[in-house]
Amino acid sequence: MATNTLYYIFAILIVTTLLVSSMLLTSLDLSRACLFQQDQQTSTEALSLLNNLLQNPGSPIDWGTKSIMPTGFGLKEPYAEQMAPSPFTPMRLMKTTEIVVYNNSEYRNLTSESMNLFMKEDEYVLYDKAADLLAIDDTYGFRVIMTPILNITVFQVESNPLKIGISLLSLSGTVYGAELIATLYYLKTGSPYPSISEPIILSTVSNISGGAEIEFSTINANDTLYFVLVRANLGGIMGVGYYINAPSGQSPLIPLITGYDEGVISLVHRKNLTSSFSIDGDLYYNLTFITQLRATEFRTINIENSFGIVKPNEPKIITVGVGSPGVLLISSKTPSEEYGLTIMPWGIVPLSLSMDYGADPINKKTVVKKSMNVVISGLSYQAEVALWRLDVEG
Hints:
Elements: H1 2-55, E1 58-59, E2 72-73, E3 98-102, E4 105-109, E5 118-120, H2 127-133, E6 140-148, E7 150-159, E8 162-170, E9 173-174, E10 179-188, E11 195-196, E12 200-205, E13 211-216, E14 226-234, E15 237-244, E16 253-259, E17 264-269, E18 283-294, E19 297-301, E20 307-310, E21 316-319, E22 326-333, E23 339-346, E24 355-358, E25 368-376, E26 379-389
Parallel strand pairs: 5-16
Antiparallel strand pairs: 1-2, 3-4, 4-5, 6-24, 6-26, 7-8, 8-9, 8-13, 10-11, 10-12, 10-14, 14-15, 16-17, 17-21, 18-19, 18-20, 18-22, 22-23, 25-26
C-alpha cells in the first residue's frame, strides 16, 4: 500500500514538473515572440522615420533658413524633386564645440579648430522639440547622422614649393581613380588692406591606395597663409576636402552669424570675445566669398563691405545672403602687420561637414539603424537613422 502511494506521488511530481517546464517554455517563447515583434516594428518605424525626414521639409518649409522654431520637423530641401536634404537645415542641428558671449547673446561654434561657424544658441533646435514634433517622444529615441560618402583628407607635404597630399576614403574603403581638382587661394600682403589671390587650379587622379600629391610650384608656404579646396569625382560620387595653414584660434577676427534669416554676419574683434587677446588696435580685413554653383563647381562673388577696418567694440556688418552654400575667406592684418586667415562655411556642403543629431542609445537592448545615400547640393552623403524603444533596456 505504501509502495503504491509512493508511485502516485512520484508520478504527480513528474507530471507537475513537465507542466511547469512546458509553461515556462511557452512563456519564454511568447516573450521571444513579443521581443521579435517589437524589433520588427522598430525596424519598420526606423525606415518610415528616415523616409519621412528625407521626403518632408518640415513646417514652415523654409524653417532651416529662418530664425524660427519649426512646427513640423523634416530635413528635405524645399521644392527639391527628390529626397535631397537641405544644405542649411543641419546648421540648426549640429553639436556645439565652443560657446562665446557677445552683446548678451550666446553663440555656439559648430565646427573644428580650422574654421568658424558661430550661430546664436537660441536657434538650435533641441532634441526634445524634434522628438515631440515627430510624435515619437513617448515611445522611441532617435538619432540622425549625415556623413559624406567620400572622406577627403588634405595635408601639407612640403612648404617650398608648396606640395599638398590628398587621401581619399569612401564608406567602403580606399578610392582609386577619382578625378581631383585642387583650388588654392593665398593671402596677399598689402597696404593698408590684405587680400585674397585669384585661384590657382590644378588637377590629378587618385592612385591605387587612394592618395595623390599636387605641387604649387610658385607658392612658398613659409611666407604666406593659404586655403586649398579639393573636389573629387568618382563616377558621379562627389566630395570635397580642404586644408588651411592658419588655425582659426589665431585669427584676430571672428565672424558671428547675427542675422540668420538674411545671411548677415558681424565681423567682431577677438578682443571683444576673448579677454586674453592682447591686440587692441584696428584690424584691416578683406573678404572673399566662394559660392557653390554645382556639385563641385565654385566661383568667387563680390559682397558688400568686402574690405574695411574693424575696431574694438565696432564690428563690421556684411551680408552673404542665403541663396547658395559657400565659403567665406577672411584675411586680416594687425597694426603690427601680423596677418591672419580664417574661413566660415555657409551650409554644410562647401566643406563636407557632417551632422550628428539626437539622443544617445546608452543601455538600450536593440538599436535599429537604417541608411540611404542622398545628394545634398550635388555632394554625396549617407543619411542614417538609429531608432530604439525607450521601454526596453539592455
